[in-house]
């Protein structure tokens, strides 16, 4: 039957496919206006030191308050933004917003914490990333030790270029985190030579810790390796007490996941997690 349909070229566009195409077309048009209409928001997810329960950091995660579709998660629009290049502008907004929010909290007397932002590959490869980071630090007056950038293993593939960018970020005083560790191109070579502060164990490994022995071994090995290289480990997607206990046993440094909290808007984070500095 598919073959028959294929004979009439125009009929390969089924009504469903057309609806998808129109939807995507509209979403893209909306995305172009989203920045100027101030429709993006950041939610923040706590990163907790499990022995003390102390909050050490927050990961900033973007959402789009779409005028008719409601609050959209990044899974619904980041890929589109990468395809049409809007991601660089959106990414700049994220960095500026996260830094200025963190500075506001500090100015309000909260105990200082680090805020991490996710960098897209395109953003990481843009020539003005370092200049933009410096400008943002100057404009927001945030101490760079409270900023962390999350990059993925794919960005390490441009070895010389990446090393150079990371060294410059490091020189500014910004922290560096490898996100979704273990799901991409993991190379011991870059791990050894890049100035990395944190490794984030991907949720897919954490999910299976209690089910699959191999995953438990992998998690143990990542933690040992990271510690030997003077890096800290953050486990992402921790949902259960069992996973938490296992990770504490393995000396995992920081925990991020629904077990402690979902990502929340800034005002809720402030109420629930931030503490006035003594
Ligand atoms: P990521 O950086 O690995 O962020 C972690 C994702 O896991 C977040 O999804 C978070 O809400 C979710 N998560 C955390 N703990 C749990 C848990 O215990 N259970 C479950 N089921 N999920 C958990 P989110 O916010 O939908 O973000 C998805 C991805 O979108 C992020 O993955 C990141 O790659 C990307 N992203 C988010 N914000 C930005 C941004 O500002 N810029 C760029 N370029 N990418 C972003
Ligand atoms: Mg991340
Ligand atoms: Mg991650
Ligand atoms: Mg992940």
Automatic annotation (TrEMBL):
Superkingdom: Bacteria
Organism: Cytobacillus dafuensis (Bacillus dafuensis)
Residue ranges annotated for the EAL domain, each copy included: 24-277
Record protein name field: EAL domain-containing protein
């Amino acid at each position: 039957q598919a073959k028959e349909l294929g004979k009439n070229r125009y009929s390969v566009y089924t009504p469903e496919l057309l609806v998808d195409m129109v939807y995507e077309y509209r979403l893209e048009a909306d995305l172009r206006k989203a920045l100027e209409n101030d429709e993006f928001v950041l939610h923040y997810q706590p990163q907790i030191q499990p022995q003390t329960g102390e909050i050490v950091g927050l990961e900033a995660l973007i959402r789009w308050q779409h005028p008719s579709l409601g609050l959209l998660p990044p899974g619904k629009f980041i890929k589109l933004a990468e395809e049409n290049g809007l991601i660089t502008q959106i990414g700049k907004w994220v960095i500026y917003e996260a830094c200025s929010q963190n500075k506001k909290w500090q100015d309000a007397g909260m105990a200082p914490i680090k805020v991490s932002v996710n960098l897209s590959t395109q953003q990481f490869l843009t020539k003005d990333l370092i200049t933009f980071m410096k400008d943002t630090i100057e404009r927001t007056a945030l101490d760079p030790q409270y900023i962390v950038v999350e990059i993925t293993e794919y960005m390490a593939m441009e070895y010389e270029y990446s090393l150079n960018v990371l060294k410059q970020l490091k020189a500014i005083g910004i922290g560096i985190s490898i996100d979704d560790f273990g799901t991409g191109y993991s190379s011991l070579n870059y791990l050894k030579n890049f100035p990395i502060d944190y490794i984030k164990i991907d949720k897919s490994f954490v999910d299976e810790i209690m089910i699959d022995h191999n995953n438990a071994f992998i998690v143990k090995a990542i933690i040992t390796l990271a510690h030997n290289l003077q890096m800290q480990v953050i486990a992402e997607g921790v949902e259960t007490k069992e996973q938490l206990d296992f990770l504490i046993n393995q000396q995992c440094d920081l925990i991020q996941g629904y077990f402690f909290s979902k990502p929340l808007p800034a005002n809720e984070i402030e109420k629930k997690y931030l503490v006035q500095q003594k």
